[in-house]
Write a structure and sequence with these properties.
Blueprint: H1 6-21, E1 26-34, E2 37-44, E3 87-89, E4 94-97, E5 113-114, E6 119-125, E7 128-133, E8 138-143, E9 149-151, E10 156-160
Antiparallel strand pairs: 1-2, 3-10, 4-6, 4-9, 5-8, 6-7, 8-10
Protein name: Biotin carboxyl carrier protein of acetyl-CoA carboxylase
Pathway: Lipid metabolism; fatty acid biosynthesis
Organism: Celeribacter arenosi
C-alpha cells in the first residue's frame, strides 16, 4: 500500500502491543485490499537466536495429535537446548506438528538418521503448512516440542548431531 492512513498506523501499533502483551518475538501480517492495494507488516524485536532457514510450502489443514515429544538421555535435562550448536531453531511463530497429518507416523523420531533438506516437522502459520527441513545430515538426538504445541521464532525444536 503506497499511502499510509490512520487505520494502518493504528493496526501496526496494535500488532506491536500484541507482540509485547504475549511476549512474542515476531508477528507478520499480509493484507490484500485489492489488485494493487496491499499491506505487508512484520513487527519483531531483537532476540539472539541461531541462524535459521525459511522454507514455506502449502499443505492440507492439520489437527494436532496427542503424541509427546521424545527426549533422549544423551544430553542432560539441565542443559539449555537453545545454546546447543546442533539445535534446529524455529524459523517462525506458529504451531509445530511432528507428523504430516493426524494419525500418521512422525516425520522423524529420536535416533533416526536424517539427510540435509529432509522434512523433520511442520509449522503451521496463518493456515499455511511450512515444512521445516533438516539443516544438515545427522542423527536426531532430541525432539524438544510436543505435537500441536505453539512455538516462537528462534525456539529450539530438535537437536540433530
Amino acid at each position: 500500500m503506497s499511502k499510509t492512513n490512520e487505520a494502518d498506523v493504528a493496526f501496526i501499533q496494535a500488532l506491536a502491543e500484541l507482540l509485547d502483551a504475549n511476549d512474542l518475538t515476531e508477528l507478520e501480517v499480509k493484507r490484500e485490499y485489492g489488485d494493487n492495494d496491499r499491506l505487508n507488516v512484520r513487527v519483531s524485536r531483537a532476540k539472539e537466536a541461531a541462524p535459521v532457514m525459511h522454507v514455506a510450502a502449502a499443505a492440507p489443514a492439520h489437527a494436532p495429535a496427542a503424541a509427546p515429544a521424545a527426549v533422549s538421555d544423551a544430553a542432560p535435562a539441565s542443559s539449555d537446548p537453545s545454546e546447543d550448536p546442533n539445535a534446529l531453531s524455529s524459523p517462525m511463530v506458529g504451531t509445530a506438528y511432528l507428523a504430516p497429518e493426524p494419525g500418521a507416523s512422525q516425520f522423524v523420531k529420536v535416533g533416526d538418521k536424517v539427510s540435509e533438506g529432509q522434512t523433520v516437522l511442520i509449522i503451521e502459520a496463518m493456515k499455511t503448512m511450512n515444512h521445516i527441513p533438516a539443516p544438515k545430515a545427522g542423527t536426531v538426538k532430541r525432539i524438544l516440542v510436543d505435537d500441536g504445541t505453539p512455538v516462537e521464532y528462534g525456539a529450539p525444536l530438535m537437536i540433530i548431531e
